[in-house]
Specification:
single chain, mainly alpha, two-stranded antiparallel ribbon, 17 helices
């Protein structure tokens, strides 16, 4: 135990100063939640038709061709729509968006899911690379550096003139925002003592939902996507005011490499494989639930506000149960509900009443949000301090990888969507076996070193059981490896 930790405990533990710092770390989550949700608004598709023939059917690609005045020989009398597209109404309160500005419809419609994948790929790479940076350079350095990059890239994104440049800037800015969000999450967790970790982590999640709900209002005021991006860059720039408070947690220096002479061998724990798998499943299966909820192409507001409301409900549910029942029990229940809801929709969506399909889809979305939020907190509590940033980064990156599966299927005309639903349902049911073997992190201090993580053991699933399971999560790899296990 480090000297400052002993002094903190003797002084009363989680005092007023640290409580104020943890509360202050909620405010940046509003801007980060706004930036993460912006992709859905920027790529919303309005009703459209070719400007040469307004009487034709809307929201289809049939108006792409219209008859020539003098048909050519051997031609069917049609040519591409060259007189511009007419958009019947603004998409998500934006009179001008990247879709309407560059006419990303019909033959260019594949660019919309490409931009969505590009945005998620940026967050994925940022979680992986800057998660390592959190462990090597410190939480504060990564937080401040990421915000500086995100602000500059946001300004450039608002002034961009070409689609390839937009993709590049979206990728880089997503990575920078992911680094800031990850560093803030880890710093907040290490700032709190065990009884307060859940409350302050879930409070940050609620502030992120507030940012998601504020985004349509900002779009209504801005009316233009470039002005909206400028406001987002301004918001991230204001977050630099928190550089001295939001990430003031001291970084633990890295330990020697596991294969170096004299260093203990570190066993790859089950949670290092389970939590990324849970994030991948919960992120990828949401598209299946949304498709079951609204089979046709939905409007922007209905799925947007539904997902935000269910995220807030999942956060409140965890706030009420995760400390009372334990992390592992709630995660097991949520994964079970997620798998059963997906399985029932997969097997009987054509035969069930419409109200039953609606109930299962909403329940599945709620369970997926719960699994995603709890697995993030759970993994951050069981990873040791020396690799907490890298470990949590891999977990969050798996969630963004799962979310990228939905726009990838749109690029191929939703071919393979049913197979994707089958795979994620199967993985959700198999994940139940892995959750049973996880340790319980409720009320425990954060492991500081690799040796502390090696001592984590499976605890009884039932709260009233007095017997403690002394078996390690995984057996020692080599008899003489030097790994200390209880």
């Amino acid at each position: 135990m480090e000297p400052e930790v002993r002094v903190l405990r003797l002084a009363g533990g989680f005092g007023r100063a640290r409580c104020l710092l943890a509360v202050a770390s909620w405010l940046p989550c509003v801007a980060l939640g706004l930036a993460l949700s912006s992709e859905l608004l920027l790529t919303a598709l309005p009703a459209h038709h070719c400007g040469s023939d307004p009487a034709r059917a809307r929201s289809t690609c049939l108006p792409l061709s219209y008859p020539e005045s003098v048909p050519r020989a051997g031609s069917d009398g049609a040519r591409p729509c060259s007189r511009g597209w007419y958009y019947a109404q603004p998409a998500a309160d934006l009179l001008r968006s990247p879709v309407t500005q560059r006419n990303l419809v019909c033959e260019d419609g594949w660019k919309v899911p490409l931009e969505q994948v590009d945005h998620l790929l940026g967050w994925l790479l940022g979680c992986v690379l800057l998660g390592l940076g959190c462990d090597w350079f410190g939480r504060r350095a990564v937080f401040v550096g990421s915000l500086v990059l995100a602000t500059g890239l946001g300004v450039g994104e608002a002034l961009v003139a070409s689609f390839p440049a937009l993709l590049t800037l979206r990728l880089l800015r997503g990575g920078a925002l992911a680094g800031a969000s990850l560093a803030l999450y880890v710093a907040r967790l290490e700032l709190c003592d065990p009884p307060n970790r859940l409350a302050f982590s879930m409070g940050a999640g609620l502030f992120s939902v507030v940012g998601t709900l504020l985004l349509p209002s900002l779009a209504l005021l801005a009316q233009d996507w470039q002005l909206l991006q400028g406001l987002s860059a301004l918001a991230t720039g204001l977050l630099l005011l928190f550089w001295g408070a939001g990430c003031a947690v001291r970084r633990t220096p890295p330990t020697p490499a596991p294969l170096s002479p004299g260093a203990p061998a570190y066993t790859c724990h089950l949670e290092e494989r389970t939590h990324p798998g849970l994030q991948l499943i919960s992120g990828g299966i949401r598209a299946s639930f949304l498709h079951s909820l609204v089979p046709s192409e939905p409007s922007f507001y209905w799925p947007y506000f539904l997902a935000a409301g269910l995220e807030a409900a999942a956060t409140v549910f965890l706030l009420l149960t995760a400390d009372l029942w334990g992390r592992r029990s709630v995660l097991l229940l949520s994964t079970l509900v997620l798998g059963l809801a997906s399985l029932l929709l997969l097997a009987g969506a054509q035969y069930l009443p419409s109200w039953t399909v609606l109930f299962l889809a909403v329940l599945g979305l709620l369970a997926s949000q719960t699994v995603s939020a709890l697995s993030s907190l759970f993994s951050a509590e069981v990873f040791p301090t020396v690799i907490r940033g890298a470990g949590l980064g891999l977990v969050l990156a798996a969630g963004f990888l799962g979310q990228a599966a939905a726009p990838l299927t749109k690029m191929h005309g939703r071919h393979g969507f049913f197979l994707q639903h089958v795979l994620f349902t199967s993985f959700a049911l198999l994940a139940l076996l892995c959750v049973l073997l996880l340790p319980e992190s409720r009320g425990r201090t954060l492991p500081q070193s690799l040796q502390d993580a090696d001592r984590l053991c499976r605890s009884p699933l039932l709260r009233g059981c007095s017997r403690q399971d002394l078996l390690p999560l995984l057996p020692a790899s080599l008899p003489g490896a030097g790994t200390q296990l209880v």
